[in-house]
Amino acid sequence: MSAKSFIIVGAGLGGLATAVRLAHRGHRVTILEKTDMLGGRNRPVTVNDCHFDGGPTLMMMLDPFYQLFRDVGERLEDHLQIELCDPSYRVFYSDDTQIEGTPNVAKMVRQIEALCGREDSLAYPKMLGDLADLYRASIPNFVQKNYYSPLDLLGGKALPLVLKHKMLGNLAAGIARYVKDPKLRMLFSFQTMYLGLSPYDAPWVYAVLTYMEYGEGIWYPKGGVVEICRAVGRLAEAKGVDIRLNTPVKKIEGKTVILESGEILTADTVICNADLPYAERALTNAKPKPKRRYSCSSYMMYMDYVGSLPKLLHHNVFFGGNFTQNLEQIFHQNQLPTDPAFYAAISARSETVMAPEGHENLYILVPCPNLDRPWADVDGVALQQLVMTRLRKEIGFDAEKVVTMKTYSPQDWSNDLNLDRGAAFGLSHDFWQSAYFRPSNRSRENPDLYYVGASTQPGNGLPMVLLSAELVVKRLEHDGKLG
Length: 483
What we know:
By secondary structure, the protein is an alpha/beta fold.
């Protein structure tokens, strides 16, 4: 097999994982990254001496992580130290009740009975077992595969599996068939927010996210979730990949990449890890696509907090008083939520070096509308006040103890990371943008251009992006691009 040359545009996890696999096969790979660091959305943020994961903070569905290292003759354990977070997270409800999510089934049953009653506690093991079956049916047959024709979606055993597991049913309604208490319905359906998708708009197949949490658990890699990209980046360089930071791309034409500097590079194949809608619009000559749907965005706060917040675990979820209204405002009214649900994290709970002694590295993520309609409150001050008021009431938070705070808005997601509409999770994962219907990892207009990342198949999230990298290499092989 003769060595081929590849240019990868973007050093997010998808680009890095693709580069490692190609370099391991003996190909010449160059990565071009516009910013000064690896990771894309999986980037580090520092506030004074506090360290944060800039975007993703959860490591779940470990199989694609292990598979990447196995595919290139390595062991994950030699590159990442991971530990289970148990409890996974603490949940704060608006009526001052709490529950702790955990993969420990017996503990969950006890907690559910105490919070919601015996009927729901007895239903939980049945729900988890059914979700495990859904996971085992959907991942290999619909997620971990390339779609070369419509027959790949409907042929073989695919359609019977869709019908058997009612994969196209509504997720929120599906959870409601198992548990009656509204608190549990929120607890077991909000996971679609990891995709920037309302559970009321999501197909039942995405209930696999709930299984990932409660069946397999949430993990933490030492050094933070950002360490995943660092480890893959180090491995890429060890295998000969040329990573060029501060190298923005202006245009992709055929096999040629034109840099903003004017430099022109050519390879046998180009792989784009920039978010697909932006790449098609700004970097290629792709024809305009029919109107696509985008995920929600998120408003981020990274705080150096002096003092202690002992009621918080590493991961925490705060639900507002009206979950349905919150989602309606974000996804259908394009309004800032008036009683927002949000996520809070203090990674120093798992690794003390992430914050100086006597300080907390408090990370807040508030789901909010994307930029389909301009925000009325561009600076997010209203969201800050709502979140801090809730934190003061629930956990004794004192705004005067915030030494320094950095924020990241939908405008920042758009401007810094080229995410169209400021959609922090890329394209939406509704039915018509899932599986076969999600944008392909091969360009229709340019036979020498491929895509990897959250807005192509199979979708958003670190495990899905790793599967995207696996799939694009398989497609390159299928298309004869690897020699």
